[in-house]
Amino acid sequence: SPRAARSSARPLPQESAGPRARRRWRPRWPSALTCCLVGLAVVGGAAVYVQGERITAQRTADGLAAEIDLARTEQRDLVVQLVRAETPEAVATGAARAGLVAPVEVAAVPAAPVPTLPAPAPTAPSPGPQAPPAAGSQLAVVAPVDVG
Fold this sequence. Notes:
By secondary structure, this protein is an all-alpha fold. The protein is about 50% helix and about 0% strand. It contains three helices and no strands. The longest helix is centred in the middle third of the chain and has 57 residues. The chain starts with a helix and ends in a 50-residue tail after the last helix. The model has no long low-confidence stretch (mean pLDDT about 75).
């Protein structure tokens, strides 16, 4: 039989070699140096990128600071213009330019006491409620008087 022709015997281990040692992988110098150089290039590239981003951010911050200073200066100038425009002389000049009538001086005349008149005859009630005048008010009912 063909099976019988084959020998199933295994070769014997060599006695002088001892147990089979596991072979460890040891990097070769050129490949280790290549990995270090690639890592260094990656770190250097990342540093350049980060520095570029910092420069861009600083330029943006400087631009915004300049815009803020410009806006503050403009706001300060507008406040000065507003204060000047609110002076009485500026208001009178603007009114004259617009053709408005210049205000005349108004004298305050104290109210003279009004003599008490007889109460008017009762009339029909008015359509809406009316509040009585407050105590101590200067309002008085004045009736037409014949001067003659």
